[in-house]
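Quality-control log, excerpt.
Job 1 of 2 completed; input and output follow.
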Amino acid sequence: MQLREIYQPIEDELKNVAEAMRKFLSESENESILKISQFLLDAPGKRIRPALVLLSAKAGLNNQIDSRKLTTIASAIEMIHLASLIHDDIIDHSVIRHNRPSINHKWGHNISIALGDYLYSKGFELISSCGNIDILCCISQATSLMCEGELAQVCLREDISMLKKHYLYVVERKTASLFAASCQVGTMIANKQVIIQKALKEYGLNVGIAFQIVDDCMDLIGEVEDLGKPPGADLNVGELTLPILNLLAQSKDKDMLISLIKQGNKQSAFLEIKQRFINSRAFANTRDDIQIYIQKAGKSLDRIEESIFKQNLFALADFISDRVMS
């Protein structure tokens, strides 16, 4: 199932989110800020996190939902996500995102840092305006974990002794925490039972872990057309992702592989590592890892009543994993 089909039941709400973001980011009187914000909004990405807020709010028990609050929170979470991407691109020295120049490449590090901070603050201003301390705490904790995960990831760069548990520590925080919070706050806005909140939070956590493993795998085997940016970004900055850890674990010539990894910023070394990965058991092992988390996500939905929204949560998980399963 394609993403547009998965989003079809929430199409109008996602349009409201996009419009709300445009409105929130057009409040500045500074023309430069408006220009940069417009550039940012013109490449919307997949909008997975706001979609998770909306689908989780509507899945299960059909409680009354405050649509204005739902739109505001979904918009705020996407702005927090965008802020994290802008800061990621600075840290990783990325020059392309979504087949366009990254913010830092187009406007420089200083503006990018300030813009990321602006989006974070704008997002939390919107969350605070809803007057729900539980929702504010949930997203604040997830954002704190995101930052912790980013910091830990940078500290682990070029650490050839890195273990799978260290990788998962980073991924659970940097990526999966906001997925989990997106699902949880959706259920909170809809006033669902605590057991439903926990089920959707668990779904989001596991889908988020799978999403990052897929993303890391695609950075190794994908093409520019699929990624919207050149592959090999992780190796270029010395990050050891799960595909590389799996390759190391089953390699019979670790010294040679380690030498290639240390030259990961060279195209020839990257292509050699890519071919070794594709032709090894490590590729299958990585896909097995992805499926473990997709299955965990699906299992958590057992506690949710049947609906088109529940089915589309299943479909979204499958969409994420299908990028490397086909």
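Job 2 of 2 completed; input and output follow.
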Amino acid sequence: MAATPTSVRYRVAGWLMVAAALSYLCRNSISVAESTMRADLGLASKTESGYILGAFFWTYAFFQVPAGIFSQRYGTRLSLTLFAIFWSIAMFATAASPIFWVLIAAQLLMGIAQAGIFPASTDTINHWMPMSQRSLGCGLLAVGMQSGAILASVLTGYLLEWITWRQAFALFSIPGILWAIAFYVRFRDKPELSPLTNEEERRLITEGRPPEQVAAARKTSGKTDWGVLVRHPGLWMVYGQQICRSAGYIFFASWFPTYLQETRNVSISTSGLLQGLVFGGALLGGLFGGLLTDWLWRRTGNLWISRSGVGASALAACGVLILMAWKVEHPLFAVLLLSLGVLFAMLAGPAMFSAVIDISGPNVPQVLGAVNMSGNLAVAVTPAVVGYIADKAGWDSVLALFALLYFIGAFCWLFVNPRMQLFAGKSTAAEFDSGSPEPIANSSTAT
């Protein structure tokens, strides 16, 4: 009788999910405290607050590719351990910042520390999850992100009723250190390095992958043609959808509590709870997106349907729901519509992670870093832009802008080809339209 495969891959996904949650707890808590911090620091306008909310994303964007290279060279085990320690230090520095510019510097440091989380995590999913569960792994990563975002919204709003924002942020700096110690002791970068995996699980992980792709996944690094990341037209639409999704999401992760406080007359704690409801929609979207993407791939064998089709449909639905919520006066009903919209938007998240793995060969951290950089450059600009538009034209104009962005993102997804060979020549029409559930031998669909 054949032995049952071990389940270490799920523990690996669990480690990554917790890392994502802790990182989002630190980065998102500042949005709930924005109005309190603005008053405490004596800031003159929402535009200045926007600079604080956006500072993290400048370094987070520009360090995506360098951090991806670092994580591939030194492995996820060492990389994520260091990242978690340094983002915890940055969180404590945020709590201790006495003036505006020191606070900006602390947020810039946190951006550097967190830049490599998702390039490293995506590469680990590539090594540890079988083709039939790849999007589930990406979906669990998205669940971790939104769990941290929900915790930040609910916990920060509650804590600010009892303690200062500085004390709350100091508390949030502790869990990352504890996680880093446990992670370094227990985690291993690849299945063949873990004494807890058996041969059956290692065979399951590589099932359905051509031999040369299995060999590529075992490489320590891959040579990257950096010009491809700029010149390849197939990547432009991947960048485009990421820019639109990221800019749309950051409104909910930054200005949304203030938007609710000023347009629906709710308290700080209530705005945090309602923001948590939106993040609940995002959490479900990330989980269901992973399940849906894997199910469609198993059902149709078509990578375009399971990646691009999901992404385009999801973002279009999000745009429609934002427009529906535009004129709804009741806070709860409006937030429920927006939560459903964010749920649809997040369905596209696992599809994006999976598509990047599909096209990247042995260079997943670098390509994911480049894609994430494009989105986070937009995110870095968005909070200040939203603050300016809110000051000059009002919050209705802000909602209209984000509905438009999601429609543009849906359009971009229509032209994303998850079967393109990013570093091995152009994909063919046959590859693009293939309905075969088995990856073709030279398609770089799994590495």
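Post-run check on job 2. The radius of gyration is 21 Å.
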